[in-house]
């Protein structure tokens, strides 16, 4: 199973969108899968179901941080990771028109109807984010 399918499968098994992205890539980038799941557990539903920045976006940004982030400050390293984040956001917006959960879903995720719609729409958003990440992680 490839990483894109793994991320979608993780979401469909009950994990949130952010968890589905970062936990798929974390082990190969030096972070234990369980720790990745714990760290990202509050980011689903656009940050704790507030409908803000979509969890696939936050999961992707954390993943990019694992790959391109820094532990010793340098302006060059900081600019590189920020550039990667901007690229991801631009590409995701080109594909899905927004990075905000409430706009992507078009409903309040705190309602039963909203959560039902999320289970229909979110697997495709997970797929889109993972496909973009796959390209970005391989090309740099």
Task: Characterise this structure.
With about 140 residues, this protein is mostly helical. It has one domain. About 70% of the residues lie in helices and about 0% in strands. The chain has eight helices and no strands. The protein has helices spanning about 5-10, 15-25, 35-40, 45, 55-70, 75-95, 100-105, 110-140.
Q: What is the secondary structure topology, with strand pairs?
A:
Layout: H1 3-12, H2 17-25, H3 33-40, H4 44-47, H5 55-68, H6 75-96, H7 101-105, H8 112-139
In short:
The chain has one domain (3-133).
Annotation keywords:
globular, 140 residues, mainly alpha, 71% helix
The count of β-strands is 0
Average residue pLDDT: 96
Total domain modules: 1
Low-confidence stretches: none
Q: Main β-sheet: number of strands, strand sense, barrel status?
A: none
H-E string: HHHHHHHH
Going by helix content, strand content and strand pairing, the class is mainly alpha
Number of helices: 8
- Distance from first to last alpha carbon: 23 Å
